[in-house]
Protein backbone atom coordinates (compact mmCIF):
# COMPACT_ATOMS: atom_id res chain seq x y z
CA UNK A 1 0.00 0.00 0.00
CA UNK A 2 1.30 3.47 -0.90
CA UNK A 3 2.20 5.85 1.95
CA UNK A 4 -0.60 8.27 1.14
CA UNK A 5 -3.10 5.39 1.08
CA UNK A 6 -1.90 4.26 4.50
CA UNK A 7 -2.30 7.83 5.83
CA UNK A 8 -5.85 7.99 4.44
CA UNK A 9 -6.67 4.70 6.11
CA UNK A 10 -5.34 5.96 9.43
CA UNK A 11 -7.48 9.11 9.25
CA UNK A 12 -10.75 7.42 8.38
CA UNK A 13 -13.94 8.93 9.89
CA UNK A 14 -14.13 6.10 12.43
CA UNK A 15 -10.53 6.64 13.55
CA UNK A 16 -11.13 10.38 13.77
CA UNK A 17 -14.22 9.84 15.93
CA UNK A 18 -12.33 7.49 18.24
CA UNK A 19 -9.49 10.00 18.55
CA UNK A 20 -11.87 12.79 19.53
CA UNK A 21 -13.46 10.59 22.20
CA UNK A 22 -10.11 9.63 23.71
CA UNK A 23 -9.53 11.39 27.02
CA UNK A 24 -6.39 13.52 27.04
CA UNK A 25 -4.39 14.01 30.27
CA UNK A 26 -4.79 17.81 30.14
CA UNK A 27 -8.57 17.40 30.35
CA UNK A 28 -8.18 16.08 33.89
CA UNK A 29 -6.62 19.37 35.06
CA UNK A 30 -9.93 21.01 36.16
CA UNK A 31 -10.74 17.98 38.29
CA UNK A 32 -7.31 17.97 39.88
CA UNK A 33 -7.77 21.65 40.78
CA UNK A 34 -11.14 20.93 42.41
CA UNK A 35 -9.57 18.77 45.14
CA UNK A 36 -7.16 21.13 47.04
CA UNK A 37 -9.77 23.81 47.98
CA UNK A 38 -11.63 21.22 50.06
CA UNK A 39 -8.74 21.25 52.57
CA UNK A 40 -6.93 24.53 51.84
CA UNK A 41 -9.87 26.96 51.63
CA UNK A 42 -12.51 25.35 53.83
CA UNK A 43 -14.01 28.72 54.78
CA UNK A 44 -14.71 29.42 51.08
CA UNK A 45 -16.42 26.11 50.30
CA UNK A 46 -19.89 27.72 49.90
CA UNK A 47 -18.40 30.03 47.25
CA UNK A 48 -16.63 27.04 45.70
CA UNK A 49 -19.93 25.14 45.51
CA UNK A 50 -21.58 28.11 43.79
CA UNK A 51 -18.72 28.32 41.29
CA UNK A 52 -19.10 24.62 40.43
CA UNK A 53 -22.85 25.05 40.02
CA UNK A 54 -22.40 28.05 37.73
CA UNK A 55 -19.85 26.10 35.69
CA UNK A 56 -22.55 23.49 35.08
CA UNK A 57 -25.00 26.26 34.16
CA UNK A 58 -22.50 27.80 31.72
CA UNK A 59 -21.73 24.37 30.28
CA UNK A 60 -25.41 23.90 29.47
CA UNK A 61 -25.51 27.30 27.76
CA UNK A 62 -22.41 26.45 25.73
CA UNK A 63 -24.23 23.47 24.21
CA UNK A 64 -26.83 25.67 22.55
CA UNK A 65 -24.81 28.84 22.01
CA UNK A 66 -21.32 27.58 21.30
CA UNK A 67 -22.18 24.42 19.38
CA UNK A 68 -25.69 24.84 17.97
CA UNK A 69 -25.43 28.60 17.45
CA UNK A 70 -28.72 29.34 19.24
CA UNK A 71 -28.43 32.77 20.86
CA UNK A 72 -30.55 33.13 23.99
CA UNK A 73 -31.09 35.61 26.80
CA UNK A 74 -33.56 33.41 28.64
CA UNK A 75 -31.52 30.42 29.76
CA UNK A 76 -32.04 31.40 33.39
CA UNK A 77 -35.67 30.32 32.99
CA UNK A 78 -34.62 26.66 33.15
CA UNK A 79 -32.14 27.34 35.94
CA UNK A 80 -34.90 28.97 37.98
CA UNK A 81 -37.41 26.21 37.24
CA UNK A 82 -34.93 23.64 38.49
CA UNK A 83 -34.24 25.67 41.63
CA UNK A 84 -37.92 26.17 42.43
CA UNK A 85 -38.78 22.52 41.73
CA UNK A 86 -36.10 21.16 44.07
CA UNK A 87 -36.78 23.88 46.64
CA UNK A 88 -40.57 23.41 46.71
CA UNK A 89 -40.19 19.65 47.09
CA UNK A 90 -37.81 20.09 50.04
CA UNK A 91 -39.93 22.80 51.64
CA UNK A 92 -42.95 20.50 51.52
CA UNK A 93 -41.34 17.51 53.17
CA UNK A 94 -39.38 15.77 50.44
CA UNK A 95 -35.73 16.68 50.91
CA UNK A 96 -34.04 13.68 49.26
CA UNK A 97 -31.31 15.31 47.09
CA UNK A 98 -30.97 12.89 44.16
CA UNK A 99 -34.69 12.56 43.43
CA UNK A 100 -35.03 16.32 43.88
CA UNK A 101 -32.44 16.86 41.16
CA UNK A 102 -34.25 14.36 38.93
CA UNK A 103 -37.50 16.28 39.37
CA UNK A 104 -35.73 19.59 38.64
CA UNK A 105 -34.24 18.09 35.47
CA UNK A 106 -37.62 16.72 34.35
CA UNK A 107 -39.51 20.00 34.82
CA UNK A 108 -36.81 22.12 33.17
CA UNK A 109 -36.33 19.63 30.32
CA UNK A 110 -40.06 19.40 29.58
CA UNK A 111 -40.33 23.19 29.55
CA UNK A 112 -37.29 23.43 27.31
CA UNK A 113 -38.74 20.94 24.84
CA UNK A 114 -42.15 22.65 24.65
CA UNK A 115 -40.78 26.18 24.38
CA UNK A 116 -38.07 25.02 21.99
CA UNK A 117 -40.61 23.65 19.53
CA UNK A 118 -42.29 27.05 19.54
CA UNK A 119 -39.49 29.61 19.59
CA UNK A 120 -36.92 27.81 17.44
CA UNK A 121 -39.09 28.49 14.41
CA UNK A 122 -37.83 32.07 14.69
CA UNK A 123 -34.37 33.41 13.93
CA UNK A 124 -32.13 36.33 14.82
CA UNK A 125 -33.55 39.18 16.86
CA UNK A 126 -37.02 37.61 16.99
CA UNK A 127 -35.62 34.45 18.60
CA UNK A 128 -33.60 36.55 21.06
CA UNK A 129 -36.68 38.50 22.14
CA UNK A 130 -38.78 35.35 22.53
CA UNK A 131 -36.21 33.77 24.85
CA UNK A 132 -36.20 36.98 26.88
CA UNK A 133 -40.00 36.99 27.09
CA UNK A 134 -40.00 33.44 28.48
CA UNK A 135 -37.67 34.22 31.39
CA UNK A 136 -39.49 37.47 32.21
CA UNK A 137 -42.89 35.76 32.12
CA UNK A 138 -41.77 32.91 34.37
CA UNK A 139 -40.12 35.35 36.76
CA UNK A 140 -43.36 37.31 37.07
CA UNK A 141 -45.33 34.09 37.55
CA UNK A 142 -42.98 33.09 40.40
CA UNK A 143 -43.45 36.54 41.93
CA UNK A 144 -47.25 36.34 41.77
CA UNK A 145 -47.49 32.75 43.07
CA UNK A 146 -46.22 33.65 46.51
CA UNK A 147 -48.25 30.89 48.15
CA UNK A 148 -46.04 28.37 46.34
CA UNK A 149 -42.73 30.10 45.63
CA UNK A 150 -42.52 32.62 48.45
CA UNK A 151 -42.75 35.48 45.96
CA UNK A 152 -40.42 38.43 46.50
CA UNK A 153 -39.54 37.14 49.97
CA UNK A 154 -38.04 33.97 48.56
CA UNK A 155 -38.71 30.33 49.30
CA UNK A 156 -37.75 29.35 52.83
CA UNK A 157 -38.13 26.31 55.03
CA UNK A 158 -35.98 24.10 52.79
CA UNK A 159 -34.60 21.16 54.75
CA UNK A 160 -32.41 18.67 52.94
CA UNK A 161 -32.06 15.08 53.99
CA UNK A 162 -28.55 13.59 54.30
CA UNK A 163 -26.99 12.82 50.94
CA UNK A 164 -27.29 9.06 50.30
CA UNK A 165 -28.62 8.85 53.84
CA UNK A 166 -25.10 9.36 55.22
CA UNK A 167 -23.76 12.89 54.66
CA UNK A 168 -25.55 15.87 56.19
CA UNK A 169 -25.50 19.30 54.56
CA UNK A 170 -23.48 21.25 57.12
CA UNK A 171 -23.03 24.99 57.56
CA UNK A 172 -19.45 24.83 56.28
CA UNK A 173 -20.55 23.52 52.88
CA UNK A 174 -18.36 20.40 52.82
CA UNK A 175 -21.09 18.03 51.67
CA UNK A 176 -22.45 20.61 49.23
CA UNK A 177 -19.03 21.11 47.65
CA UNK A 178 -18.41 17.40 47.07
CA UNK A 179 -22.00 16.93 45.89
CA UNK A 180 -21.74 19.78 43.36
CA UNK A 181 -18.36 18.52 42.12
CA UNK A 182 -19.68 14.97 41.62
CA UNK A 183 -22.77 16.15 39.70
CA UNK A 184 -20.65 18.47 37.55
CA UNK A 185 -18.26 15.63 36.73
CA UNK A 186 -21.09 13.35 35.56
CA UNK A 187 -22.59 16.19 33.51
CA UNK A 188 -19.18 16.97 31.96
CA UNK A 189 -18.74 13.35 30.85
CA UNK A 190 -22.22 13.48 29.31
CA UNK A 191 -21.63 16.80 27.52
CA UNK A 192 -18.22 15.68 26.29
CA UNK A 193 -19.73 12.59 24.68
CA UNK A 194 -22.38 14.73 22.99
CA UNK A 195 -19.85 17.25 21.66
CA UNK A 196 -17.56 14.58 20.19
CA UNK A 197 -20.38 12.44 18.76
CA UNK A 198 -21.77 12.62 15.20
CA UNK A 199 -24.79 14.42 16.69
CA UNK A 200 -22.48 17.04 18.18
CA UNK A 201 -20.62 17.49 14.90
CA UNK A 202 -23.92 18.01 13.12
CA UNK A 203 -24.74 20.78 15.62
CA UNK A 204 -21.50 22.51 14.63
CA UNK A 205 -22.52 22.17 11.00
CA UNK A 206 -25.90 23.74 11.77
CA UNK A 207 -24.16 26.63 13.49
CA UNK A 208 -21.85 27.19 10.53
CA UNK A 209 -24.26 26.69 7.60
CA UNK A 210 -27.92 25.80 8.17
CA UNK A 211 -28.73 25.81 4.44
CA UNK A 212 -26.08 23.23 3.62
CA UNK A 213 -27.19 20.98 6.50
CA UNK A 214 -30.75 21.13 5.16
CA UNK A 215 -29.42 20.26 1.71
CA UNK A 216 -27.67 17.08 2.88
CA UNK A 217 -30.80 15.87 4.66
CA UNK A 218 -30.04 16.69 8.32
CA UNK A 219 -33.24 17.21 10.39
CA UNK A 220 -32.14 20.64 11.54
CA UNK A 221 -35.22 21.61 13.56
CA UNK A 222 -35.37 18.28 15.37
CA UNK A 223 -31.72 18.49 16.40
CA UNK A 224 -32.05 22.08 17.52
CA UNK A 225 -35.05 21.23 19.72
CA UNK A 226 -33.25 18.16 21.08
CA UNK A 227 -30.13 20.04 22.14
CA UNK A 228 -32.26 22.89 23.51
CA UNK A 229 -34.11 20.42 25.74
CA UNK A 230 -30.86 18.73 26.83
CA UNK A 231 -29.38 22.12 27.75
CA UNK A 232 -32.55 22.91 29.70
CA UNK A 233 -32.17 19.64 31.64
CA UNK A 234 -28.59 20.53 32.62
CA UNK A 235 -29.57 24.07 33.57
CA UNK A 236 -32.41 22.68 35.70
CA UNK A 237 -29.97 20.38 37.49
CA UNK A 238 -27.71 23.36 38.18
CA UNK A 239 -30.63 25.32 39.60
CA UNK A 240 -31.70 22.37 41.73
CA UNK A 241 -28.15 22.08 43.07
CA UNK A 242 -28.15 25.75 44.06
CA UNK A 243 -31.43 25.38 45.93
CA UNK A 244 -30.26 22.25 47.74
CA UNK A 245 -26.80 23.51 48.74
CA UNK A 246 -27.93 27.00 49.85
CA UNK A 247 -31.33 25.78 51.14
CA UNK A 248 -33.02 28.90 49.82
CA UNK A 249 -34.49 30.12 46.54
CA UNK A 250 -34.93 33.78 45.60
CA UNK A 251 -36.48 35.43 42.56
CA UNK A 252 -32.98 36.26 41.35
CA UNK A 253 -32.52 32.65 40.17
CA UNK A 254 -34.84 33.42 37.26
CA UNK A 255 -34.00 36.85 35.88
CA UNK A 256 -32.61 38.44 32.75
CA UNK A 257 -29.62 39.57 34.81
CA UNK A 258 -28.67 35.98 35.59
CA UNK A 259 -29.00 35.03 31.92
CA UNK A 260 -26.76 37.93 30.99
CA UNK A 261 -24.23 37.14 33.71
CA UNK A 262 -23.82 33.51 32.68
CA UNK A 263 -23.47 34.60 29.06
CA UNK A 264 -20.69 37.00 30.06
CA UNK A 265 -18.92 34.26 32.04
CA UNK A 266 -19.03 31.94 29.04
CA UNK A 267 -17.75 34.61 26.65
CA UNK A 268 -14.97 35.42 29.11
CA UNK A 269 -13.78 31.81 29.12
CA UNK A 270 -14.42 31.00 25.46
CA UNK A 271 -17.60 30.04 23.61
CA UNK A 272 -17.81 26.65 21.90
CA UNK A 273 -14.69 25.36 23.62
CA UNK A 274 -16.21 22.83 26.11
CA UNK A 275 -13.79 24.13 28.76
CA UNK A 276 -14.67 27.81 28.44
CA UNK A 277 -17.14 27.42 31.29
CA UNK A 278 -14.43 25.96 33.54
CA UNK A 279 -12.24 29.02 32.95
CA UNK A 280 -14.68 31.90 32.57
CA UNK A 281 -16.92 31.21 35.57
CA UNK A 282 -14.15 31.02 38.22
CA UNK A 283 -12.36 34.01 36.70
CA UNK A 284 -15.52 36.14 36.76
CA UNK A 285 -16.78 35.08 40.19
CA UNK A 286 -13.42 35.30 41.96
CA UNK A 287 -12.77 38.71 40.37
CA UNK A 288 -16.25 39.85 41.36
CA UNK A 289 -15.79 38.67 44.95
CA UNK A 290 -12.44 40.43 45.34
CA UNK A 291 -13.46 43.63 43.58
CA UNK A 292 -16.60 43.89 45.72
CA UNK A 293 -14.40 43.80 48.82
CA UNK A 294 -11.83 46.27 47.48
CA UNK A 295 -14.34 48.75 46.07
CA UNK A 296 -17.85 48.08 47.46
CA UNK A 297 -19.41 51.01 45.60
CA UNK A 298 -17.91 50.93 42.12
CA UNK A 299 -16.85 47.30 41.78
CA UNK A 300 -19.20 46.79 38.80
CA UNK A 301 -17.14 49.36 36.89
CA UNK A 302 -14.00 47.26 37.27
CA UNK A 303 -15.83 44.09 36.25
CA UNK A 304 -17.13 45.89 33.15
CA UNK A 305 -13.67 47.23 32.33
CA UNK A 306 -12.22 43.72 32.57
CA UNK A 307 -14.84 42.41 30.17
CA UNK A 308 -14.30 45.26 27.70
CA UNK A 309 -10.58 44.49 27.62
CA UNK A 310 -11.25 40.80 27.03
CA UNK A 311 -13.72 41.46 24.23
CA UNK A 312 -11.45 43.98 22.48
CA UNK A 313 -8.11 42.24 22.84
CA UNK A 314 -8.88 38.57 23.50
CA UNK A 315 -11.08 37.13 20.78
CA UNK A 316 -12.06 33.66 21.90
CA UNK A 317 -11.85 34.58 25.58
CA UNK A 318 -9.16 33.46 27.98
CA UNK A 319 -8.78 30.14 26.17
CA UNK A 320 -8.24 32.09 22.97
CA UNK A 321 -5.30 33.86 24.60
CA UNK A 322 -3.87 30.51 25.67
CA UNK A 323 -4.22 29.12 22.14
CA UNK A 324 -2.49 32.10 20.55
CA UNK A 325 0.35 31.94 23.06
CA UNK A 326 0.80 28.24 22.35
CA UNK A 327 0.78 28.83 18.58
CA UNK A 328 3.38 31.58 19.00
CA UNK A 329 5.66 29.24 20.94
CA UNK A 330 5.26 26.50 18.32
CA UNK A 331 6.06 28.88 15.45
CA UNK A 332 9.22 30.09 17.17
CA UNK A 333 10.41 26.61 18.04
CA UNK A 334 13.40 25.61 15.84
What descriptive keywords fit this protein?
334 residues, mainly alpha, globular
Task: From the alpha carbons, calculate the radius of gyration and give it in angstroms.
Answer: 21 Å
Note poorly predicted spans. 1-9
Our estimate of the beta-strand percent is: under 5%
Number of helical segments with 4 or more residues: 17
| Net shape | globular
Oligomeric assembly? single chain
Mean pLDDT: 84
- Main sheet characteristics: none
The structural class is mainly alpha
The N- and C-terminal alpha carbons lie at a distance of 33 Å
String of helices and strands: HHHHHHHHHHHHHHHHH
Q: Percent helix among the residues?
A: over 70%
Query: Could you give the count of β-strands?
Result: 0
Structural commentary:
- This protein has 334 residues and is mainly alpha-helical.
- It has a domain at 43-253.
- Helices cover 73% and strands 0% of the residues.
- It has helices at 3-10, 13-21, 29-34, 37-40, 45-67, 76-91, 97-119, 124-144, 146-149, 174-195, 198-208, 210-215, 220-246, 256-269, 276-294, 299-313, 317-332.
- Helix 7 (97-119) runs antiparallel to helix 13 (220-246) and helix 14 (256-269) packs parallel to helix 17.
- It starts with a helix and ends with a helix.
- Mean pLDDT is 84; it is low at 1-9.
Amino acid sequence: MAPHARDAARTSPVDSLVTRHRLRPLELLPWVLVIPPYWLFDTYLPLGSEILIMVLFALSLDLILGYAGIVTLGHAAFFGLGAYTAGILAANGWGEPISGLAAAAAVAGATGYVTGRIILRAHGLTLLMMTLVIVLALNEAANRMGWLTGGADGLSGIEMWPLLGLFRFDLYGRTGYVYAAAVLFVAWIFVRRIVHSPFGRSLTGIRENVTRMHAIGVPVRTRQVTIYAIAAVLAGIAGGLLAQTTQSVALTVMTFERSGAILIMLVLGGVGRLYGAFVGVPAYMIAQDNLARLDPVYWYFWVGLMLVVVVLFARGGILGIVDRARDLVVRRRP
